[in-house]
Amino acid sequence: MQKGTEAVRVFVVVDALGRYRTRLGAQDVELPLVPISEDLAIALLITVDHGVRFAEQAGTELAALLAPFEAEVVVSVATMGIPLAIEVTRALGLDDYLILQKTPKIHLQDALSEPVTSITTDTPQRLLFDRARVSVVAGRRVAVVDDVISTGASVRAALNILRRVSATPVVIGAMLTEASTWQGVLGEDAALVHALGGIPVFRRQPSGELVEDWNGSSDRDIVPASTTTDQ
Fold this sequence. Notes:
Blueprint: E1 8-10, E2 19-24, E3 27-35, E4 40-43, H1 51-66, E5 73-77, H2 81-91, E6 97-100, E7 112-116, E8 125-129, H3 134-137, E9 141-149, H4 153-164, E10 168-178, H5 181-186, E11 193-199, E12 201-204, E13 210-213
Parallel strand pairs: 5-6, 5-9, 9-10, 10-11
Antiparallel strand pairs: 1-13, 2-3, 3-4, 4-12, 7-8, 12-13
Helix pairs in contact: 1-2
């Protein structure tokens, strides 16, 4: 059965630990199933748990997908996007990359900010852009990369804040996309997305069985309005 032909497919547990096997470019990975509510679970990719070679190969393969768009700088979101940003930057032959932060730091007291809510985080956050780094992306072609695009909220916030400083996002890269909620959140920008693979979310049935949901969303798929207020 091909992905996308039905909203739900039966999920077969890979092993007794409840891991989900998928393919990420040329690499096979097994991801733990993590519940985020009574009836919803996600397959969790923690980039830093897969080692240096994994990130290097994924970054190289993703860079090959992004290369035709001729980005001049790579931008990602801390913290899981950092290893990918480094490897994609290296593979593209670039020398600089920019990381947007979600944790307030002393040098970000006057940062540009954008609201964002993540499916894996209970509380709303703000994406922070160091004003001292604006010149790195202003007027330049930008590739936005992230480990997983789930609700699309982090990428949406990144695009909003980059466009506010006159950067031009020309492509979006990810190791994995999750289900399809992100397509509606990104709107026309969804066409910019290139990924090495895709995974569903998982719904628990009354019987207790988990099923794959490729069109899934949840009550936590909240995308704040794109305010331009700096805090």
